[in-house]
DNA sequence: TATTGTTATACTCTATAACTATA
DNA sequence: TATAGTTATAGAGTATAACAATA
């Protein structure tokens, strides 16, 4: 049976980390992601688009008449999970589902003027939040980080 | 009203990305995190410890007699959320809650032999999964990535 | 008054499976 | 048979608020 070998860490003591955990890419990725995500929410507030809704809108604006299935693929999520996101965007008047002549199964996504404006405005806020949060990273460091993250993203499942 | 300006993206066409999305750190962080997290689960299987449970065990092993409140702080989660994680670890015989003489409020976490062994075995599996998944990153690139992620992590809320 | 562990509760994000209407 | 959109459902993961015991 394992015996306690050290005294309990008092609350006042500065927080230590598990050394082997700190060397793992996955752990650092998760923790860093939480930092950025929390700051995003704080910066955009309650009325703002959530990260995933903003991502969906960005792609819908960049590729008008996109299919929901294609958008889900681009986002790396299931078709079923996209429904609520599109519901929200349509409810807010940012885009609309339209039927496509020639294939009555699909619902093409058409960005509306309000959606294009919301996208532009939100993008500016997101950029401002990242610039502020990451101001202690140089431009080269930010480029390097994105380059390395994209290298990991090459393993995204293509399904 | 916005008019469709391009033809619908056919399923066969290679997936495009929204350029401005691809330049955001947060978006790339999220997508890369999903890649690593999915590969972790695939590598460790159904019986394996989840990332958060492994992280909790790692810290409990590194700091015997740790308090639940301190552990929650280290993990960056709420005390309440840690309860289920410790329940799981205790149920699996990997650690035990023990009362501390001098403060009967706290439940010190004592790693058991099985817990130390499970930690060692899981760490080996996690390292193997990361080495395999990230084999296209050089050692310098991996070090750089961890360095940059830690720079972001400096903004972790100290609560 | 403040803190520790706990419970209850709810919300976000995501996945799986099954359905319908089309193709 | 296969695909697009949808619904129902469930499971992580996390947060907030409150509580009892203790400091």
Automatic annotation (TrEMBL), chains A, B:
Matching Pfam families: MarR_2 (PF12802)
GO molecular function: DNA binding; DNA-binding transcription factor activity
Spans through the membrane: none
Keyword Transport listed: no
All copies of domain HTH marR-type, residue ranges: 22-154
Keywords: DNA-binding, Transcription, Transcription regulation
InterPro entries: HTH_MarR-typ (IPR000835), WH-like_DNA-bd_sf (IPR036388), WH_DNA-bd_sf (IPR036390)
PANTHER family: TRANSCRIPTIONAL REGULATOR, MARR (PTHR42756), TRANSCRIPTIONAL REPRESSOR OF EMRAB OPERON (PTHR42756:SF1)
Protein name listed in UniProt: MarR family transcriptional regulator
